[in-house]
Amino acid sequence: MNAREDLVRTAIWAEELAPDEIERARRGISERQFAKGAYICHRGDRLDCWTGVITGLVKVSTISRSGKAMTFAGVGPGSWFGEGSVLKDEPRKYDLVTLRETRLAMLSRPTFMWLFENSTGFNRFLVRQLNERIAQFISTVEYDRILHPKARVARSLAWFFNPMLYPVRRTEIEITQEELALLAGLSRPVTSKSLRELEEEGLLSVEHGLIRVIDANALSNYEV
DNA sequence: TCATTAAATTGTT
DNA sequence: AACAATTTAATGA
User: Model-level pTM?
Assistant: First the structure.
């Protein structure tokens, strides 16, 4: 058994795949390493790979016409993204930037399409993942209108505990308050203050460049 | 291994 | 948004 095989076998989407499908996936996969702050791709680039994070953290973002940075999501170890662009065979709509040193698994488009055409297990995974994404974005729109900074920070953090999108569960999230502010769409001071208040309430503890979550459930349901 | 320095992150005005 | 303080990481003896 080699590293690549292990990579596929432990992937979240491989659970329902038949042995021959796993073998097929294994042959279509490769690994790449990126330094902290590196661009995996710019908006408008083509990236003909379905991508999984092995270690590290990737930011999905764009820069608006007014020059303001917007972050849509953080992608952590074990989660896979980009199926939309690969399925539609179109350029990426967002910048992909690593927030720290990151190793990625890249599944080639031909392999992805083969699995899409032939594997029911793979399709079941895709449907579940897309469904989960929709739910996530709907809830984002929902709390975007509520606008309590503390609740926004809490729910942004709760993203990292979605078992579908973040299969590798940890209580510590390696993220700076500045990056979290980008995720939450708030200024850094407000994010920082909210974090300290949430710490007061015993839901988490903040350290340098790291947030230790104590009550993830309370965070995801946080109101007021 | 320890001390010094540089860089990054966080807190405050 | 700018500055100050704190903490981590890097460098070299």
Answer: 0.84
Instruction: Give the number of other CB atoms < 10 A from CB of residue A185.
Output: 16
- From residue A38, how far is each of A35, A56, A96, A205 by CA, in Å? 6, 12, 9, 29
| A67, two tokens | 């020059």
Q: Amino acid letter at A190? A: V
Report the distance separating Cα A49 and Cα A109, nearest Å: 5
For the stretch A106-124, pLDDT in tens is 999 999 999 999 999 999 9
Q: Do A216 and A222 contact (CB within 8 A), yes or no?
A: no
Distance A55 CA to C12 C1' (A): 31
Verify if strand C has an atom below 7 Å from the CB of A209.
yes
pLDDT band of residue A148 (cuts 50, 70, 90) is confident
Q: How confident is the prediction for chain A on average, in pLDDT?
A: 88
Q: Note the strand C nucleotides within 7 A of protein beta carbons.
A: 1-2, 7-8
From the Cβ of A191, is strand B under 7 Å away? no
A210 closest-nt by C1' vs CA: B9
